[in-house]
Give the backbone structure.
Amino acid sequence: MQFLPVFLDLRAGPVLLVGAGELARAKLRLLLAAGARVRFAATDGNDEVSDFDAEAVSRIERVAGDPIAADLTHVIAILCAGAGATGEAMAARARAKGIPVNVMDDLTHSTFIFPAIVDRGDVVVAVGTGGASPVVARRVRERIEALLPARIGDLATFIGRWRKTVHGRIPDFSQRRKFWEHVIDGPIGTMVLAGKSNDADAALHAIGDPSAFTESTGFVTLVGAGPGDPDLLTIKGLRALQDADVIFYDDLVSPEILDRARRDAARVSVGRRVGKPGIGQAAINRLLIEAAQSGKRAVRLKGGDPFVFGRGGEEVAALREAGIAYDIVPGITAGVGAAAESEVPLTFRQKATRITFLTAHKARDAETVDWSALTDTKMTVVVYMGITAAESIRTGLLAAGRSPQTPVGVFARATRPDAKAVVGTLEDLPGLAEQVETGPAILIIGAVVALSAPWRNSELAQLHSTLLMAAE
């Protein structure tokens, strides 16, 4: 470690900023955001600060003349950005007086460096590479930005507001630490991160015996894992996986997504595939409730979205009845994921103004489906788990009057490395389903399939155009 990360209180004294152009102004904005009083020596003579608000301007002191002769009384740090050779001279002067100095992009003359910064109010993260690669530092910062909740700073502020009160009620340090861990990881922390600080204040105030609150409090989070690509997992879903004590997951959840969970979290498979028995919904509900009642943070991980053919509503009802605290993290549903990957616009002006999502479990029982409701040529029909029901779907739609030339697509294992898309027309749907070999698969039926990338890349595009002209 070449540089020790430290956090400097810039309100302790003025900072001298020497430089020119946008480089210097970027540093000026950063210093002012940190509450600093700045002596600004513009080497190009442009020390205009009218674009800053009045409060910020009140903390800027313009330095006229040669920066080398600038007053260094009480100066706690010197920054040089876009200062050219003046930067080296200022660095020599700073070293002689024992003042920390940074010359931008010049490690030789710097005694400290600027990290890439993630600013969440009271939570600040600094990322450095010892000056070797600022671009790498920025990339790491971007990853951290994505992982940190937007209101993590609010959570720190909330705890800071209550620290003295809780300290008085829980004198023991280890018990106090456990208390705050449960606040952060439990419903109160969730309230703050959701922007409900007033509710969080009320909940914390209502705790009669804080020492009892140090006991484990269970919580269940329903998380949508998305269609398969681990990069499509939401940031909030990723955080839930990394906080979980136990994860109850479906078979459609990819191993790559499970690999992003906390390493020591227990993993329990509770899913089933077509033709294979599962443990049943009642048993899953019971496992979730028992995990929470034992004080664990449980995640119910589902492929796609919990509330789109995922029985998430049933699980929430069971948790609510049992008095279990829970949260819901939506995911990208498989139909939307498949459509995006293959460039199928589910709606398109003049061509498709309605969408119907259908599960093939019902489609296989053809007499229970009102197929006439699905024959609107401006309706896109998205069918989940549709491979084994392809014959029933074709028969039902054709009998109801939908054109046999209606474009259809079968999208298997969407967004995964082994994804496969096959397109054609409604009359050929069963044969298309056979071509993708195995699921899970989404069927998309409607004119918009003819706008998809697989259709454009096939010979069907010209054929379909010819048939439409003939029909007219």
Summary: The mean pLDDT is 88. The longest helix spans residues 152-169. The chain has four domains: 10-114, 155-214, 222-329, 336-471.
